[in-house]
Structure formats: C-alpha cells, structure tokens
Amino acid sequence: MNDMNTNFQSYNQQQNWLFPPSIEELVPIEHPVRVVNGIIEQLDLNLLIEEYSKEGKPSYHPKMMLKVMVYAYMDNTYSSRKIERAMRENINFMWLAAQQVADHNTIARFRSKKLKSIFKDIFKQVVLLLAEEGLITLKEVFTDGTKIESVAGRYTFVWGNAIKTRKEKMVEQLEEMWQYAQSIADEEDSDPVPPDFKKIDSEKVERTANKIAEIISKNPRASGRAKAKLRYIQKNFPQNLDRYEEQEKTLAGRGSYSKTDPDATFMRMKDDHMQNGQLKPGYNVQLSSESQFVIHYTLHQTTNDLNTLKPHLDTFESLYEFLPEQLTADAGYGSEENYEFLEEKGIGTYVKYSTFDKEQGILKSKRKKKNEGFHRDKLYYSQEQDHYICPMGQPMENIGERKGKTKSGYLQKSSMYQAQNCQGCPLRTGCFKAKGNRIVERNHALEGYKEKVRENLLSEMGIIKRRQRTADVEPVFAQIKSNRNFNRFTHRGIEKVELEFGLHALAHNLRKKSA
Fold this sequence. Notes:
Helix 2 (about 30-40) crosses helix 18 (about 495-515), helix 4 crosses helix 18 and helix 8 (about 120-130) packs parallel to helix 18 (about 495-515). The chain has helices at about 25, 30-40, 45-50, 60-75, 80-90, 90-95, 105-115, 120-130, 160-185, 200-215, 225-250, 310-320, 335-345, 355-360, 430, 445-460, 460-485, 495-515; strands at about 140-150, 155-160, 255-260, 265-270, 280-290, 295-300, 325-330, 350, 380, 385-390, 395-405, 410-420, 440. A hairpin with a 5-residue loop joins strand 10 (about 385-390) and strand 11. It has 18 helices and 13 strands. Helix content is about 45%, strand content about 15%. The chain is of the alpha+beta class.
C-alpha cells in the first residue's frame, strides 16, 4: 500500500523503545485507582495479616489482594476469573498488583475466607478516614432498607405454614385411626384415654402406630382400607416428622426459606415501574448513610424493617463504640419498641409513624373511605377523664387493659374503651360492624412517643431532615442497585452475602470520594 501522499502519524509495531515508559506513568494522577491505593495504604491491616499462616509457601501480600478486590468492585468486575484476567490485561489492576497475577482460586479464597471475619473493621477504618477528612460527621444518619434477591432458585421454597398444616393433618389421621382401633378393640385392648397429640414427634407416632397395629392385626373385623392406611402411617409419618423438625430448625421462626440458600427468606420484590413483583428468596439490607456515604450496613432475614432497627444500631455501636446523635427514617420503623430504644440511647428521633403522612395530608388514599371520621384516631380522647367520645357524643369508658407481645418479644400494653349503648344508634352501620357495643384500643405509651416525634418532625429541623432523607439514603440504593446493576447476590449464606454487599458499599464510598 502506498502511503507516500498521505498525512498519517508513524505506525510501526516493531519500533523499540529507547526509554520504555513505566506503568506508573500510564495511570493518570486523578484516576480512581489511585484513591483506592491511597486509602488502603493508610489502613491498619494487622487483623487481615493474622488470617495468614507463617508456614508454607509465601502468599500474595494481603494489602495487594485487598486493593485489587476493592478496585474490582469499583470497576464492576465481580467474578474471580474476570479479576484474574484483569490482573493480566488491565493497566490499572497491573499497577495495583505490581504486575503480580493471582489465580482465580486464590482470589476466591481471599474473598470468602480471609475477608469474611475482618471486613467490617476495614470498612470502619475507611469510614473514619472519611470523617477525618471532614466528608462526614457520624453524628446524624439516615436509615432505610431494601430487598435484594438471593442467587437461590426462585421455586425452591419451604413454607412454615405448609409444615404446620401437614403436621395438623397427620394428627387428624392419627386420631381417626386411634378412634377406629378403639371402636373395634376387644375389652382388654380398650383404652378410653387417647394419646396427647398436641406435640408430636417420630417416636410418639411410632409408639401410637404400633399400638394401633396390635389391635387391628388380631381383629378380623378390621377393614383392608384401615390396614393400608396404617401401613402408610408407619412407613411415612416418622421420617416426614424428622424432616419437618429439621426444616423448622432452619426456619428459626421465619415464614419461609429456600432449599438452595437456607439463609434466604422469600420476600416480595418490587420489579417494575408499577411495583408489581413476586415472592423471591432474598435478604433485607439495612443501610445508614450520611452525605450519600454508607456509614453502616447490616443484613436481615425478616421481611419488614420494623424489627431491624435495634440490631442495626446495636451493631453500629459495637463497631464504632458510639451511636449517632440523630437518626432519620421513614414510617417503616415507627413503633413503640423502636421509639423507646432510641430514647434510652439518647438519639434524636426523626422517625415517622405509620399515619404521619396521612395526618399531614401528604399521603392521599387511592380509595376514599366512607365515614373516615369514625376511625379511632378521629375520636376525641379526654386525658383528664380517661375516656373517648363516640360519634354520637357518648363517653366510651375504660373497661380494662390488654397485654401482648410483638414478634421480637417486646411487651405492649393497651387500654380498652367501650361505648355504652350502640343498639339503635343511627350511626352504627358507618361506625363499626361487630356485634355488641364498640370497643377501641389505645396504647398510651405509643401515643406519648408519637406526640414527641410529631413535634420533632414538624419542627424546622424536622422538615429539613425529612427532605434530606429522600436525597441521602435512597440515592445510595439507586446507585448500587440500578446504576451499578447489582440486583442479585452471587453468593449463598448470610455471612457471604453480607461481605458481598460490604464490598459494594466500600466501593461506593471510594467511588464517591474520587468523584
């Protein structure tokens, strides 16, 4: 090809360098990879170093491996094989690793074993460095939760209610067989006291089935159908009960779990713009942020946020050895238990309760309810006389107290107030539908907390914080889940997925710092 009459720069792949450039010169000064390098150079990695044995073949330096791992998550490179390839081909990875190349098995072991128990300490050190630079204060946090799908199969569910139903049916069949055996039993085999089936196990089923078999086997009046049913019970019920017992241990009070990731709970995910979703195995991620930096994160197996706040803040205190001065969160966290906890810890509370937005006219119901003024919250309550006034103007007197426990074991007390005479009242059909006189319930402790929180939320500072919350913590989730396309975990087990999210959170913080 004739290049005589063209105006191109010289191109010769065989041209040798007189002074070859170093990798250092090829990485721009402002590149995010230098932020990763600079931050990790400041960390105390003694806990990470202690994870290594002093014997055997020398390992890759944990500082180098940590730099590569964190930058990989900043670069959206999560696969250990892709990280290995990047260490061979990507100039930024080559610079961080000083041109060392760890194989994918070493990378996977470093992530799953070396980082598992000490990563939170690394995360804490980075957050404290951000605080030293004045980017955050750690005094006020914004807390919210999101659900992220597990890598487990979507149709591998085990339901707690299904186990309960199956066990109840087994009890019914055993009781039927016992009654049948007693109906045909001889006088010496007759036992008027039936076995207690309130709590059954494989041993009890086996003993009962054997007793029934003794009666049926020697009685010519026993039907073939009954004998077949008994054989089925003897063959299947004990082993089924053993399996249900193991499943209930795995559930540990949850409503469901996945067979391929037993730590994952089935939760309703928001999939499309209409928020139509389906139940999928996943984890409830709780996150506290400040200035869109992730301050703290925890993973939970519960489907709602209500019972996550206390353990979330307990681990915050355990990690940093102090608590934030102020906390702002949405109505998903508003409960007597949480308000009491925040007050005991001396944390300024800007946490909505469930009806706050409706009270302020912020939330408008899609369906207009008739006679909304008859709702308990719309009735007048006299604190001095301790009674409500019903829609007809009659006092509803205190008739006693009701106690109950939440799922977390928290004890709640409520006073009950009953109307005097609802019979023949012209407003009854719109007021309530139950029989007798109307009864309303009031939790005095919760109402007291709501009054304080309402005052906080409606203050000048409260208005600012309510606006800040939507612009602080929610964009962090949007950045991690939508912009970085992290909508599903790639590991199984709550410890591994917590580490996985932690790497995403740390990468988010460093990416934001370098922006």
